[in-house]
Amino acid sequence: MRTRTKVCGITRVEDIHAAVEAGVDAIGFVFYPPSPRSVTAEQAKVLVQHVPAYVQTVGLFVNASCSEIAQVLKVAPVDILQFHGDETATQCQQIAQQLGRRWYKAIQMKPDLDVINIIKSYQQMGASAVLLDAWHPELKGGTGHQFDWSAFPKLDIALILAGGLKPDNIEQAIQTTAAYAVDVSGGVESAKGIKDQQLIEHFMQGVQRGSAK
Which one of the listed residues 15, 25, 92, 133 is annotated catalytic? Predict the structure, then answer.
């Protein structure tokens, strides 16, 4: 099965078209104002209208309240919630149930983290997947760093690989981790929040090669 792919941090209509034409499975929007890739609900509303059927939309939130997320969804009704902060498994479940959305949790691969049990705690609360990202003491994703892929676990839940992925390492990343999906942002950009069509195409070609082996 081909590894699923999400391009995150989309801010422009032309980048949605480039990603869709390259064959991505999901488009990610960042609703976290400190991020250079952040969009408002009103901006996302326009962008979502350019995402065709069978391509999913994902909203990334960091420690946002249920009411804050609800306000975004009223304007820009994304398909899936990505919790990328310090949200507990219970908090994720409660917010997703109230808002009627599927969800997954991003976990930063901090040294000495009991990653297996943490993944299972979110799985038990109904996560559709768990995303494993590089750890940074200050940043919440988008670090451009990668973690030790040999630490990527094999479990009976969809696991998403993120952190430092780019066209020249994605094939190796998929072969090493056998991840269900990969999530890329900075690795296909010409500037923060500005995607590059050629880089997206080369990234997807690497995904295809990595999935085929």
Answer: 133
